């Protein structure tokens, strides 16, 4: 009599290294990842449109955060709140997608901290300065930092440090799966983000570019995880 040996491969249960089968297929996971992926383009798009429409705003002198000031500041406050909520939702999707793989514990936690920093930034507004809103002296914002402006800046610093740390954690995840391109990008992007922040004292556009790069790379990573097992 010939005995038939049934293997997991016969049922399509072979798993790739570093992930659990069907993790991204859980109900709602792709929707949560899509929410996290939408956060960056939404925030940056809203900021660019407002920056070109608001009187006195200059991308070479003013940070997007300052759009929270003035009569139309509620638009940017709403953008902060919505972006934070979407990123936190994306962190939940990230936890589900990684599902016990390398980085599954800390990457979602760090991204959640990043999302929370947007909620704090919405409550504690940036200071006026550099000519915005209209009528504000042209002195740099940091010249007379208020307590709420200080909280705003601190929340942004903590949030982006958490995001950079999350990218380094995700680099380990991609490396464990043999996705070397994604792993190297997750190592290099945080360096570029931090370099932009370091240069912000003399060039506001460098800060904007660094912050925007971090948001867009989060979009790229969440999109990659959402489409990986389709």
SSE diagram, text form:
Elements: H1 29-53, H2 73-98, H3 106-123, H4 147-176, H5 180-198, H6 204-227
Protein name: DUF998 domain-containing protein
Keywords: Membrane, Transmembrane, Transmembrane helix
InterPro entries: DUF998
Query: Could you give a short account of the major beta sheet?
Result: none
User: How big is the Rg?
Assistant: 21 Å
The first-to-last residue Cα distance is: 41 Å
DSSP summary, beta strand count: 0
Structural class: mainly alpha
Q: What do the pLDDT scores average to?
A: 88
Shape: elongated
Helix percent band = 55-70%
Counting structural domains, the number is: 1
Strand content of the residues, in percent? under 5%
Structure annotation, total helices? 6
Series of secondary-structure elements, N-terminal to C-terminal = HHHHHH
Unreliably modeled segments: 1-22
Summarize the structure.
Pfam families: DUF998. This protein has 230 residues and is an all-alpha fold. It is built from 6 helices and no strands.
Structural account:
By secondary structure, this protein is mostly helical. It has one domain. It has six helices and no strands. It has helices at residues 29-53, 73-98, 106-123, 147-176, 180-198, 204-227. The chain is elongated, with a radius of gyration of 21 Å. It starts with 28 loop residues before the first helix and ends with a helix.
């Amino acid at each position: 009599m010939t005995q038939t040996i049934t293997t997991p491969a016969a049922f399509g249960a072979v798993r790739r290294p570093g992930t659990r089968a069907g993790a991204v297929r859980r109900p709602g996971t792709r929707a949560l990842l899509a929410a996290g992926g939408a956060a960056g383009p939404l925030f940056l798009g809203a900021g660019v449109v407002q920056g070109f429409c608001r009187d006195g705003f200059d991308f070479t002198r003013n940070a997007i955060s300052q759009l929270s000031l003035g009569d139309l500041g509620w638009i940017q406050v709403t953008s902060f709140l919505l972006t934070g909520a979407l990123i936190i939702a994306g962190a939940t999707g990230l936890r589900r997608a990684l599902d016990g793989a390398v980085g599954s514990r800390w990457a979602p936690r760090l991204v959640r901290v990043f999302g929370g920093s947007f909620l704090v930034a919405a409550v504690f507004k940036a200071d006026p300065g550099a000519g915005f809103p209209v009528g504000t002296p042209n002195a740099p914002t940091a010249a007379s930092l208020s307590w709420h402006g200080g909280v705003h800046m601190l929340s942004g610093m903590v949030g982006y440090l958490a995001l950079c740390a999350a990218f380094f954690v995700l680099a380990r995840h991609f490396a464990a799966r043999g996705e070397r391109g994604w792993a190297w990008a997750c190592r290099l992007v945080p360096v570029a983000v931090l370099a932009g922040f370091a240069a912000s004292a003399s060039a506001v556009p460098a800060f904007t570019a660094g912050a925007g790069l971090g948001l867009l790379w989060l979009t790229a990573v969440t999109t990659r995880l959402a489409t990986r097992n389709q």
